[in-house]
């Protein structure tokens, strides 16, 4: 029954399309029952399952012919929803009808909007690109100008940039139209290809050049295409699952043009499949999809199936029309990172800016799962590039001010950790202040995530951004000392170069970020009662600080604040104390390898070092009258401990009697002493070597390493950097 019903529906649709195709004169709307029934048939079929390519072409001719009223033509154009793909011939016909001037201007503008809605589903772009000059002529229409600029922006190649076109755009900007965002966006692409043709400065590329139109229309198209693709895959899997050769299951990139994966429900989040703008790509792939023409000056990217082909033709590969496909294609990511083409990165930046703004900023998120997939692909791209993307930083600057701290948490934190280096004031406004507000009003788990993210940001600054900033400055001074524009970005491995801000001082930024993390960590430990999880995060932060000088871009040693050291030192976690002791050993190596050691840093480090030595080994926690910072606390802390009945408080935090090590001491006695024998932690002082070896077996290696590095066992004194 369902098959008969489907066949009857197809016959009815064919009759409706045939009715619109046979009309060759003006059609009366009022009282025309056949017109109304045919229109309803087309609308129901399009909204349910989409239209086939031949139906789209026929109905587009009818809507553009001028034989029907504008209301009918408008409804027909909105019904041009494809089942899978839109034939390029239909798009060419739409522009041809616009050139005849038969359709009204409103219908012509709607045709352009339809082309932009289905742009990702067009089966080719070579013939459409041949009409570039004709499309350019429609810029004189204020109604069509935004849509024409957007379409030209997507189609522009290097050979399309001509002086007369630049003059035309400049005349429109300086004339009656003014500096419209759409004209500026088109000029931006022109300037990237030929900077000498556009002399005046243009705004940053992260600006929204083209407005968002037809969101519901795009969403409707997406849902129908997704439904048709999933139905087709379901039928194919049922029919081929038992008789398909396993070798045929591997699908090359060339097959993706005809059998796409199930698309997303929302057009603005669709990551397109790589297309080629070459005319013969599809035809050549069907006959010989594995052969590459060496004689050709350009090799379409859709024919690069593996990394070997990429290496063989890396200088001749033509980028696909949809550069946003790099989010899902690792080979395209390698090509984009290698080429450093500013036009390619600008196209990608525009797509990414549009997607993030439309989905996360302009409207409330409605599909969390799809948004998370997009953010995951962006995170994977930034991890591959090991470089922040400026447009993502701008997105974070707006998103963090309204973020609740929960939605897309893991992905937002990962993007924050890849943020580029900015001046201190900008960094505060962009990241630090929004995170600070969330930090004090969130749970301990959010506090841990926040500190982990900022620690990773600090690590990335030291490992990559400081080195890049140093290379930027050197490259600019070599190219043009009076310019702040980096011309040799690709040779430096920089894919998204921005104008170098001379006010950025990497050392000052690292110091400020460290001070900010110190304050957050101290307040967090106080607020959460020295939570064990938060304490481990803080110790990891101290470990990262101790290893920053291993990176060539860091020229100064950065120390944690003494309050954090005391929190860890007096905690009940032996692993945390051991890890902090190991970090102190790395600090000693860092001071030894950095020439011209900073006296202030040496003094501060020695103060903390004395505190650790006195507490863990020398039993002088609050009783060292000459050195250390704990002597200042003896006046207030010792009386409190005495009132609590704590006997000999100066030795109550050592590795022998400290609460953090009581479990280790008990296990040591149980392993070495006979059952029933009375033991006391003080007895460990007579077997220090055996006890330290036992701590090593318990994976507390940092304690023994610290004792061996800073303590002279015979004299029971500590080594300090000042004494060396």
Automatic annotation (TrEMBL):
Where does this chain mainly localize? nucleus
Q: Where is this region: Disordered?
A: 232-289
InterPro entries, per this entry? CENP-I (IPR012485)
Which Pfam families has this protein been placed in? CENP-I
Q: Name the source's superkingdom.
A: Eukaryota
Kindly list the GO CC terms recorded for this protein: inner kinetochore; nucleus
Q: Print the keywords alphabetically.
A: Centromere, Chromosome, Nucleus
Q: Can you say where in the cell this protein is located?
A: Chromosome, Centromere; Nucleus
Question: Which residue ranges have biased composition labelled Basic and acidic residues?
Answer: 241-250
Q: Name one GO biological process term.
A: CENP-A containing chromatin assembly
Tell me which family the UniProt entry assigns to this protein. Answer: Belongs to the CENP-I/CTF3 family.
Q: Which PANTHER family is this protein grouped with?
A: CENTROMERE PROTEIN I
Q: What is this protein called?
A: Centromere protein I
Q: What species is this protein from?
A: Littorina saxatilis
């Amino acid at each position: 029954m369902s098959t008969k019903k489907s066949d009857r529906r197809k016959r009815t649709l064919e009759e409706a399309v045939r009715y619109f195709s046979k009309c060759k004169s003006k059609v009366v709307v009022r009282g025309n029952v056949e017109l109304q029934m045919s229109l309803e048939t087309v609308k129901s079929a399009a909204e349910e399952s989409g239209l086939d390519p031949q139906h789209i072409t026929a109905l587009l001719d009818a809507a553009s012919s001028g034989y029907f009223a504008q209301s009918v033509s408008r409804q027909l154009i909105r019904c041009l929803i494809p089942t899978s793909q839109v034939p390029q011939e239909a798009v060419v016909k739409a522009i041809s009808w616009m050139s005849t001037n038969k359709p009204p201007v409103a219908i012509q503008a709607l045709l352009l909007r339809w082309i932009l809605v289905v742009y990702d589903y067009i089966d080719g772009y070579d013939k459409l690109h041949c009409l570039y000059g004709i499309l350019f002529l429609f810029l004189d229409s204020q109604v069509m100008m935004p849509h024409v600029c957007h379409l030209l922006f997507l189609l522009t190649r290097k050979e399309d940039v001509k002086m007369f076109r630049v003059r035309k755009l400049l005349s429109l900007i300086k004339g009656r139209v003014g500096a419209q965002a759409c004209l500026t966006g088109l000029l931006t692409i022109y300037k990237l290809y030929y900077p000498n043709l556009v002399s005046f400065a243009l705004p940053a590329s992260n600006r929204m050049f083209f407005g968002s139109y037809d969101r519901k229309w795009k969403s409707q198209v997406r849902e129908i295409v997704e439904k048709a693709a999933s139905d087709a895959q379901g039928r194919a899997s049922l029919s081929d699952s038992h008789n398909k050769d396993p070798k045929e299951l591997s699908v090359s990139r060339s097959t993706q043009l005809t059998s796409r994966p199930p698309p997303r429900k929302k057009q603005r989040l669709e990551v397109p499949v790589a297309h080629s703008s070459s005319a013969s790509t599809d035809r050549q792939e069907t006959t010989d999809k594995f052969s590459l023409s060496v004689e050709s000056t350009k090799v379409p990217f859709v024919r690069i199936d593996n990394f070997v082909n990429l290496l063989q033709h890396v200088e001749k590969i033509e980028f696909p029309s949809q550069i946003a496909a790099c989010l899902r294609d690792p080979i395209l990511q390698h090509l984009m990172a290698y080429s450093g083409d500013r036009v390619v990165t600008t196209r990608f930046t525009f797509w990414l800016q549009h997607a993030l703004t439309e989905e996360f900023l302009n409207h409330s998120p409605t599909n969390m799962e799809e948004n998370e997939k997009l953010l995951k692909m962006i995170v994977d791209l930034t991890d591959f590039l090991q470089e922040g993307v400026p447009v993502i930083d701008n997105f974070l600057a707006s998103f963090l001010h309204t973020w609740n701290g929960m939605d897309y948490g893991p992905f937002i934190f990962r993007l924050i950790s890849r943020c580029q280096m900015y001046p201190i004031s900008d960094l505060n406004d962009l990241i630090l202040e929004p995170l600070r507000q969330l930090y004090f009003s969130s749970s301990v788990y959010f506090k841990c995530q926040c500190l982990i993210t900022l620690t990773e940001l600090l690590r990335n600054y030291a490992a990559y951004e400081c080195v890049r900033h140093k290379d930027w400055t050197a490259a600019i001074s070599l190219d043009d000392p009076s310019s702040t524009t980096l011309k040799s970005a690709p040779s430096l491995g920089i894919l998204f170069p921005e104008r170098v801000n001379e006010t950025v001082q990497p050392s000052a930024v690292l110091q400020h970020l460290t001070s900010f993390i110190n304050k957050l960590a101290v307040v967090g430990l106080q607020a959460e009662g020295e939570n064990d999880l938060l304490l481990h995060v803080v110790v990891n932060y101290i470990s990262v600080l101790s290893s920053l000088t291993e990176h060539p871009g860091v020229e100064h040693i950065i120390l944690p604040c003494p309050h954090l050291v005391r929190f860890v030192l007096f905690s009940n976690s032996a692993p945390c104390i051991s890890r902090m002791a190991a970090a102190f050993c790395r600090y000693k190596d860092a001071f030894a390898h950095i020439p011209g050691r900073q006296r202030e840093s040496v003094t501060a480090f020695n103060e903390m070092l004395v505190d650790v030595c006195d507490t863990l080994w020398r039993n002088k926690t609050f009783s060292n009258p000459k050195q250390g910072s704990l002597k200042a606390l003896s006046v207030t802390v010792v009386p409190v401990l005495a009132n609590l009945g704590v006997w000999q408080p100066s030795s109550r935090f050592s590795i022998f009697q400290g609460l953090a090590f009581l479990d280790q001491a008990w296990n040591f006695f149980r392993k070495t002493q006979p059952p029933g024998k009375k033991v006391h932690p003080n007895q460990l002082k007579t077997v220090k070597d055996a006890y330290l070896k036992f701590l090593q077996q318990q994976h507390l290696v940092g304690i023994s390493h610290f004792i061996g590095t800073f303590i002279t066992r015979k004299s029971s004194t500590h080594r300090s950097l000042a004494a060396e």
